[in-house]
Write a structure and sequence with these properties.
Blueprint lengths: L23 E6 L6 H12 L3 H14 L1 E7 L1 H17 L5 E6 L1
Antiparallel strand pairs: 1-2, 1-3
The structure holds L-tyrosinamide.
GO molecular function: peptidase activity
Function: Involved in the modulation of the specificity of the ClpAP-mediated ATP-dependent protein degradation.
Family: Belongs to the ClpS family.
Length: about 100
């Protein structure tokens, strides 16, 4: 029972499962005070972007209000958010970083 045999002994299809851990989008939010260069530095330092990539994403956040800066497993996403929030707070910038299930 449970592996293909129904109540009356009829075949019951079980959907094939693929290991697929939930992924989380890490997002940066715009604000009026955090310097652009600081945001670029964050993206290089914690998200492994080149200077050009970082500058482009920073401008997207600045213009659109927010942008996804990476997609990670729960643990990695949580670590990224903490690193950005801690680093920003230490430098007294109001930059906000959040995560959301994909
Ligand atoms: N809007 C900020 C400024 O004009 C720059 C900025 C970009 C701030 C992205 C936050 O996530 C951010 N200095």
């Amino acid at each position: 029972e449970g592996d293909g045999a129904g109540e009356a002994g009829l075949a019951v299809k079980t959907a094939p499962r693929t290991a697929r851990p939930p992924m989380y989008k890490v997002m940066l939010l715009n604000d009026d005070y955090t310097p652009m260069e600081f945001v670029v530095h964050i993206l290089e330092r914690f998200f492994g972007m080149t200077h050009a990539q970082a500058f482009e994403i920073m401008l997207t956040v600045h213009k659109k209000g927010l942008a996804v800066v990476g997609v990670y497993s729960f643990e990695v996403a949580e670590t990224k958010v903490s690193q950005v929030m801690d680093f920003s707070r230490r430098h007294q910038h109001p930059l906000q970083c959040t995560m959301e299930k994909e």
